[in-house]
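Batch queue: ligand-bound targets. Current item pairs a single chain with coenzyme A. No template structures supplied; prediction is de novo from sequence plus SMILES. Inputs echoed for audit trail.
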Amino acid sequence: MPPQQTPEAFVHWLRGASPYINAHRGRTFVITFGGEALAGGGLAELIHYLALLDALGVRLILVPGTRPQVAARLAAQGEGGAYAEGLRVTTPAAMEAVKEAAGLVRTEVEARLSMGLANSPMAGARIRVVSGNFVTARPIGVRDGVDFGHTGQVRRIDGEAIRRQLADGNVVLLSPVGYSPTGETFNLSAIEVARSAAVAVGADKLLCLTEGGMTTESGALARELSPADARAWRAGQPADGDLPRTVSAAIAALEGGVRRAHLIDRQCAGGLLLELFTRDGVGTLITAERFEAIRPAAIDDVGGIIELITPLEQAGVLVRRSREVLETQIGDFWVMERDGMVVACAACHPYPDDGVAELACLAVHPDYRQGGRAGALLARAERELAAHGMGRLFVLTTQTAHWFLERGFVAGALGELPVTRRAMINYQRNSKVYIKEIA
Ligand SMILES: CC(C)(COP(=O)(O)OP(=O)(O)OC[C@H]1O[C@@H](n2cnc3c(N)ncnc32)[C@H](O)[C@@H]1OP(=O)(O)O)[C@@H](O)C(=O)NCCC(=O)NCCS
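Prediction returned. Tokens below.
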């Protein structure tokens, strides 16, 4: 992983990251982290990652927590503070500390994001950060005999206003503080604000930097969980723990339409970037979309397809196709998408007068091979073509003959291809023809 020593390794790493860069551009991520992340040297590093995501075109909503900052203020006043259900019971004195801490954290994050120092990773970065009264709150009130005081819960998030700010290129910073229509201020939990904001704006991801990772019974890091798996994990945990509450919020976010929730141990160096730009990531992904579905390609997939097939074209494995050709033929393509990235594609060009179709441009991203994806695309193509009255499928290949032979294709002759197709053959490629009966 980066930083890399040799130019080759660097280029390899950058190439590996480029599909993810493409996939994340224009997406909306809500990122929440505890006030612990602001202490020590961690903030400078985190801010650089956030600046990088901003520069790569990711729309960011940041929700920093303030718990240690509030605790420090109260301690200075000789107050400890009480907790119930994992939440602070907010007395009037604690509420003052909350407001101070929220202001301080906001100012700190804004200041750091404003840095554009030459010779730093932030050089030239012009990041506009906006905060505002986007969060409406109501008091929790008295629960199980505990008066939560000024501790509140999210009542509404002004998703429309936030979306407008994001569309204007602004980073949105939400404090864990909300206001009631009666003008009162409430202390909220950052994870609840993050979850509610993610749902309100229809975010693509909720990313939670946690204190410690989410581990399974065997002590291993939980890598990819369905909401059902996450619920089962949650059931075995104490109700008021920070990590379990984060997992509950992640599940609720998915139920509210957010596609993916990630939990990343804050202590893991570079964790946020590794989670977003490498195949396996370093955190826990909770998603209902565990298996990529095959779907017809749309014009928006052209960029992802180019990303996938360009190295194969350069290696001479696939015929070169210009963007214009891909745009014209996009209706013939099928893709498999994972987290916004095209991981596999295939095209079926039908020749209805001849009752045959060509399978072309079959490609699977190197990180996702050997998983049966190409086989699934072929099976899907065969089913669809047979349903449309095509009796035979042919393919022209230079290096993948055996893959097709093992799947029922037999060697054919160029003379068996439709006349219109023969006219377009590049004989220099010396491709071989393989044909399969599919009717
Ligand atoms: C060929 C390709 C599409 C297979 O994708 P995939 O999702 O890994 O395929 P599947 O998981 O369905 O099948 C994997 C099997 O195919 C085999 N295979 C992969 N490439 C092969 C090749 N060129 N020739 C023969 N077999 C091959 C693998 O060894 C594996 O078999 P194994 O599990 O018995 O070892 C993929 O390797 C690729 O994109 N290659 C580059 C592009 C290409 O050649 N496309 C075809 C152009 S006509």
